[in-house]
From TrEMBL, chain A:
Its EC number is 1.2.4.4. It comes from Paenarthrobacter nitroguajacolicus. GO terms for biological process: branched-chain amino acid catabolic process. Belongs to the BCKDHA family. It holds the Pfam family E1_dh. Transmembrane segments: none annotated. This is 2-oxoisovalerate dehydrogenase subunit alpha. Keywords: Oxidoreductase, Pyruvate, Thiamine pyrophosphate. It comes from the Bacteria. Residues 27-305 form the Dehydrogenase E1 component domain. The branched-chain alpha-keto dehydrogenase complex catalyzes the overall conversion of alpha-keto acids to acyl-CoA and CO(2). It contains multiple copies of three enzymatic components: branched-chain alpha-keto acid decarboxylase (E1), lipoamide acyltransferase (E2) and lipoamide dehydrogenase (E3). It is an enzyme of class 1 (oxidoreductase). InterPro entries: Alpha-ketoacid_DH_E1_comp (IPR050771), DH_E1 (IPR001017), THDP-binding (IPR029061). Coiled coil: none annotated.
UniProtKB/TrEMBL annotation, chain B:
Coiled coil: none annotated. GO terms for biological process: branched-chain amino acid catabolic process; response to nutrient. This is 3-methyl-2-oxobutanoate dehydrogenase (2-methylpropanoyl-transferring). Its EC number is 1.2.4.4. The lineage of its organism: Bacteria, Bacillati, Actinomycetota, Actinomycetes, Micrococcales.
Length: 350, 361
């Protein structure tokens, strides 16, 4: 009798990442780090009303997002997946517009981006991933060609009942879903040991008969390889996989948060471990894959990119108020149409 | 406008018409689902016990055997999972028709219904519509355990992004379900479980065989208005506004009142969101008196919304304030007491009497 489900042995043509790919991963991480840091500054400058930084989670996000095949997979994020979005090549003005308070779900097109709208009920979208993935099974793709859903959530969201329901549904239906947990140590002010009984979300997967991987979430290559093998497992029709990327939320929960009330700087320094970006840089240097000129260029590109995104965000005006009404339904109700008319007459005096 | 054919007692007059068949609401819903699956390869039906068993009310009876396990399937016992899964299936291009086994079990799924299904079209700026038809066996009257007799229409109607409909008879059940299952927006389809086994005439060839109002008629789906209310009985003195199982009861009340010379109109609202305000205005504009009847508790029930719509359109001509005869502001009681809770004939007659005897000042 086996008790530990294991990843099916699949040939996913998993050649080691090329030097070019490794440099690309670094460039993405540098861009994400700079945009993330800049976005906090934008909030301080009044450009955006709020932001949820992903500082310290660049390896977990870029490493996993880099494995997504945009021609057939679909990503189900919460609100702290900027690094995934960037790794997938999303329209970043459209993505960051949610933090500008332009539109809750962001202004990017989720269908074309293969990235579901940003939303704040953590764990809510975990079930959506299962439904979408089961849809791939129902669509009858031959084994090896399944589109795969990857759903992101954290140690905090893992407490939600929806995560249990989602894992159970996915296992029962053998749905091609990757449950990607970023265990970043904190759910706002509550540490993982007060959140996750047993200390590991991945350990729960065994109860569902789902294979799981716990990876060093600050090692971008390890994260990427784990995600890639999970995708191959799902694509081959073997059902879901759980990945728990152990990382650390180096910043506040959001720009409205004050971590000083629940953790000291000394605790942060000790618990955070090595900076994933710096760590990857040292590795690339040591292995002779990149040199200082490359890192300087990556930084320059990151700054250039951030400037363009900031300009785009600053130029983003408010949406026409009529969209409040027109986007509720595909077929608006008469009552809603008359509210829209009254609003227009009373606000625009037409 | 012809006499109602939803009243079982008038069914014999239609028995000769070939297109009209006698069916229970359970049979009508089952047939509608069968045809929906045949017509739309993207339609999928799922929920607790929907597959092999055919549902606890047998509404999906035989559908898995006929259409296969990919089209009609059982889920684990978790309502949030069922509705959350519906969102993902809709995003993948399917038309999910999930079932919540009993009204009270919609509560565990409320996050997925309110925060996800109702908002995804909006959140995604119209790129991810939610064509989900959520079937909910609803209301009381069957001596069931706790959480099996709830009336959730006001709760759902209050949520931006949801539409709500409840048929009162087999013919409407058949046509409204087929109509709802072709819409691009989420529809909460509230089936009056106490009416599942009552037979009535169903004309599968035409929705318009039932007298319908012309309000908001898009004229496309079934050659008649399936988006508005229905005059179930014409009358001159007072309008009873009802939906679901209360329509049949109001028709009974109207028959009794007729013996006393009181001519009552019964308006079957059918759609609880959007409410057919024009039909209310037409009916009460004529009768000048209205009583709203619903099983749900009084306070903030849909009767308040109906009363306001009537007041808005008919204030100048109303002879009396709109009266409400409803369930009470109490948890739905055990079977022994449910006849005390659900508006009965006497309470509806008292409501009618209060309106008829109302004097200004």
């Amino acid at each position: 009798m086996t008790t530990e489900p294991v990843l099916a042995a699949v040939d996913d043509d998993a050649a080691p990442l090329t030097h070019h790919q490794l440099r690309e991963l670094y460039t993405l991480m540098a861009a994400v780090r700079h945009l993330d840091t800049a976005a906090v500054a934008w909030q301080r400058q009044g450009i955006i009303p709020g932001y949820a930084p992903e500082l310290g989670q660049e390896a977990a996000q870029v490493g996993s997002g880099y494995a997504v095949d945009r021609s057939r997979d679909f990503v189900f994020p919460t609100y702290r997946e900027m690094g995934v979005a960037r790794a997938m090549g999303l329209d970043m003005v459209g993505y960051m517009s949610t933090h500008k308070a332009t539109w809750h779900g962001g202004m990017y097109n989720p269908l074309e981006s293969r990235f579901a709208p940003i939303q704040a009920v953590v764990a809510g979208s975990v079930l959506h991933a299962v439904g979408w993935a089961h849809g791939q099974t129902l669509s009858g793709k031959a084994s090896g060609h399944h589109g795969v859903a990857i759903t992101y959530f954290g140690d905090g969201a893992s407490s939600q009942g929806d995560v249990h329901e989602a894992m159970n549904f996915a296992a029962v239906m053998k749905a091609p879903v990757v449950f990607f947990i970023q265990n970043n140590g904190w759910a706002i002010s509550v540490p993982t040991d007060r959140q996750v009984a047993g200390g590991s979300v991945a350990a729960r997967a065994a109860g569902y008969g789902i294979p799981s991987l716990q990876v060093d979430g600050n090692d971008v290559v390890a994260v990427h390889e784990a995600t890639r093998s999970a995708f191959a497992h799902c694509r081959a029709g073997n059902g879901p996989v759980v990945i728990e990327a152990m990382t650390y939320r180096r910043g506040p929960h959001s720009t409205a948060d004050d971590p000083g009330r629940y953790r000291t700087l000394e605790e942060e320094r000790l618990d955070a471990g090595q900076d994933p970006l710096e760590r990857f840089k040292q590795r690339l240097l040591a292995e002779g894959i990149a040199d200082e000129a490359f890192f300087a260029e990556a930084q320059r590109k990151a700054e250039e990119e951030e400037e363009a995104i900031r300009t785009g965000i600053e130029e983003l005006g408010p949406r026409p108020g009529a969209e409040m009404f027109s986007l509720v339904f595909q077929e608006p109700t008469p009552a809603l149409q008359s509210q829209a008319t009254a609003w227009r007459e009373e606000s625009e005096h037409v | 406008m012809s006499e109602t054919i939803t009243d079982p007692r008038s069914a014999d007059s239609n028995a000769g018409a070939a297109a009209v068949q006698q069916m229970s609401m359970q049979q009508a819903l089952n047939r509608a689902l069968d045809e929906i699956l045949a017509d739309n390869p993207k339609a999928v039906i799922f929920g607790e016990d929907c597959g092999r068993l055919g549902g606890v009310f047998r509404i999906t009876d035989g559908l898995q055997a006929k259409h296969g396990e990919d089209r009609v399937f059982d889920t684990p016992l978790a309502e949030s999972g069922i509705l959350g899964m519906s969102v993902g299936l809709a995003m993948a291009g399917f038309h999910p028709i999930p079932e919540v086994q009993f009204d009270g079990f919609a509560y565990p799924a409320i996050n997925q219904i309110v925060c996800q299904i109702a908002r995804m079209n909006y959140r995604s700026r119209g790129t991810l519509p939610m064509p989900i038809t959520l079937r909910v066996p609803s209301f009381g009257g069957i001596r069931a355990p706790e959480h099996h007799g709830e009336s959730l229409e006001a709760l759902f109607a209050h949520v931006p992004g949801l539409k709500v409909v409840s048929p009162s008879n087999p013919h409407d059940a058949y046509h409204l379900l087929k109509y709802a299952a072709t819409r691009p927006d989420p529809v909460i389809f509230m089936e009056p479980k106490s009416r599942y086994w009552q037979k009535g005439p169903v004309d599968v060839t035409s929705a318009a065989a039932i007298p319908v109002t012309a309000a908001h008629d898009d004229g496309t789906a079934h050659g008649g208005s399936l988006t508005g209310a229905r005059v179930a009985r014409e009358g001159r003195h007072l309008t009873l506004v009802a939906w679901g199982a209360m329509v049949a009861r109001c028709l009974q009340v109207a028959e009794l009142a007729a013996e006393d010379g009181i001519d009552i109109e019964v308006l079957d609202l059918r759609w609880l969101k959007p409410i057919d305000a024009d039909a209310l205005a037409r009916s009460v504009g004529k009768t000048r008196r209205a009583v709203v009847v619903h099983e749900a508790p009084l306070t903030s029930g849909l009767g308040a919304e109906v009363a306001q719509l009537i007041t808005q359109s008919c204030f100048a001509t109303l002879k009396a304030p709109v009266e409400r005869v409803t369930g009470f502001d109490v948890p739905y009681p055990s079977g022994d007491l449910e006849d005390e809770y659900i508006p009965n004939i006497d309470r509806i007659l008292f409501g009618i009497q209060r309106v008829l005897e109302y004097r200004r000042g």
